[in-house]
């Protein structure tokens, strides 16, 4: 992993960084392809929204773009951008003039999944916090705990690829690291992210491009949907084949969604549609 | 600030530490006095509870004690212990065998407050997440946002010393960095911390030593209490003089609580009881 911290090859961060102390930061995980990051504007725009919400000053876009370009050097893969509030005293009150830390790292592209995903329902619920909903902040223990449900040493292997999470109210919200879309009565639907969950960059694309709508979904509605897919900016659209006892065959509307994505984002071109 | 990272004088942490990425860690902030940390057993015990909940392996207590003793070198002040899950891949799933990072730092003792505190009600609510309630984990953006309400540049100075936080259900939970006790019908009462909030070390002391009880409290109950104090392991018991429009005169039961604390914890001996 190549990593730049504030533009410098190094790989270490001050031990009093507020990202470390309080998860006081934001991140973006982006798919690079052939020397570009096709969805950069959407990622940058979400980072700005998050920074406004948390009142973290944002470095100049040109500086960040330069650091991002340095780490992936015109290639493919994943670029992670982490922006924290920087060093800060002991205590929750941020320094009056924070000097944010910007950490940019490069990672290999994920291995494309063959066939549909197997999902499980996570036991951990997402707490409802409108002040933090939608943005991609670094307070992610709920996702870590959810992931531990089926990956921790000693846990029975359920064979799941991902887990769907519900809010404390019981509504479906998202997977641990992806948004979810369900095809119901011919219409793609995805849950709101105004009380918990993240407004995913691929979700934004799908809402616009697939003419999808935002709607509260119960677990029963997702289980009885005609088709379900997960999506994120790193892996694109991932068909779901199984959720607990429910199974789905490949659906032409999911294949059509993947073709639309392949047209708009070259990293997701020609995805394998069947195993 | 002197800081040890994994026992080594250094002051930096790997940029891929999961504490930085996800707030995937726990901390303790402890009062040192005359070469000892009188409440060490309570802090260590809460760290163990948190680590069990998050499934973070804990270093040997003797090793941590040695690092803690190294940073404060027999003096006074504050020792902060931060335990993260250590380096980890990109993604929420923790590595199967995490190598936690242990960061120990020394800070000056806080300046003793003269007189009672002025409190405000925070607008940000605490989300209800039983899976994370009670433990002192590093997902603290709610507290950071609450603190920003009256300390951010450009905010009208309210003159508040601390803010009381309510849960999303509207119940009183705690201050941003302290627990709260209210004297109602002759009995000290403090809110439960099983859905949000932290089980403070000084709160544990007060529950036992002041024969206090745990009870859901509404904002109205706190405002109409005969006396109110905040407490934490760093500053001890802090009388409250004002909350919004409500004011309290010094109360003998608060003075008695402070005398009891002074007997049990030498750092809080002979506190000034009046301005």
Compact description:
Chain A is of the alpha+beta class. Chain A contains seven helices and 15 strands.
What's the average pLDDT of chain A?
94
Chain pair forming the biggest interface: A-B, 64 and 64 residues
Quantity of strands of chain A, as a count: 15
Q: What is the CATH superfamily of the largest domain in chain A? A: D-amino Acid Aminotransferase, subunit A, domain 2
State the helical fraction of chain A.
25-40%
Oligomer designation: homodimer
CATH fold-level label of the largest domain in chain A? D-amino Acid Aminotransferase, Chain A, domain 2
The number of distinct structural domains of chain A comes to: 2
Structural overview:
Two copies of one chain form a homodimer. The first copy, chain A, is globular. In chain A, 25% of the residues lie in helices and 27% in strands. In chain A, strand 1 and strand 2 form a beta hairpin. Chain A is of the alpha+beta class and 275 residues long. In chain A, strands 7, 8, 9, 10, 11, 12, 13, 14 and 15 form a nine-stranded mixed β-sheet that branches. A five-stranded antiparallel β-sheet of chain A has the order 2-1-6-5-4. Chain A folds into two domains: 2-107, D-amino Acid Aminotransferase, Chain A, domain 1; 117-268, Alpha-Beta Barrel (D-amino Acid Aminotransferase, Chain A, domain 2), CATH 3.20.10.10. Chain A is built from seven helices and 15 strands. The interface between A and B is large, with 64 and 64 residues.
């Amino acid at each position: 992993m190549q990593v730049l911290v504030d533009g410098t090859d190094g790989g270490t961060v001050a031990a009093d960084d507020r990202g470390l102390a309080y998860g006081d930061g934001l991140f973006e995980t982006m798919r690079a392809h052939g020397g570009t990051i096709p969805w950069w504007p959407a990622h940058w725009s979400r980072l700005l929204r998050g920074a406004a919400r948390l009142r973290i000053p944002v470095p100049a876009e040109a500086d960040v773009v330069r650091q991002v370009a340095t780490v992936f050097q015109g290639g493919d893969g994943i670029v992670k951008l982490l922006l924290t509030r920087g060093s800060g005293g002991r205590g929750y009150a941020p320094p009056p003039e924070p000097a944010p830390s910007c950490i940019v790292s490069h990672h290999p592209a994920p291995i494309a999944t063959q066939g549909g995903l197997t999902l499980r329902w996570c036991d951990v619920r997402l707490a409802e916090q409108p002040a933090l909903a939608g943005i991609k902040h670094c307070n992610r223990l709920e996702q870590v705990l959810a992931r531990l449900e089926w990956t921790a040493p000693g846990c029975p292997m359920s064979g799941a690829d991902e887990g769907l999470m519900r809010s404390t109210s019981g509504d479906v919200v998202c997977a641990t690291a992806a948004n979810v879309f369900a095809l119901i009565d011919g219409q793609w639907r995805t849950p709101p992210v105004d009380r918990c969950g993240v407004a995913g960059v691929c979700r934004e694309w799908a809402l616009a491009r697939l003419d999808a709508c935002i709607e509260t979904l119960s677990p029963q509605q997702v289980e009885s949907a005609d088709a379900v897919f997960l999506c994120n900016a790193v892996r694109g659209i991932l068909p779901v084949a199984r959720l607990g006892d429910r199974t789905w065959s490949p659906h032409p509307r999911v294949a059509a969604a993947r073709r639309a994505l392949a047209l708009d984002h070259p990293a997701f071109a020609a995805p394998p549609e069947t195993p």
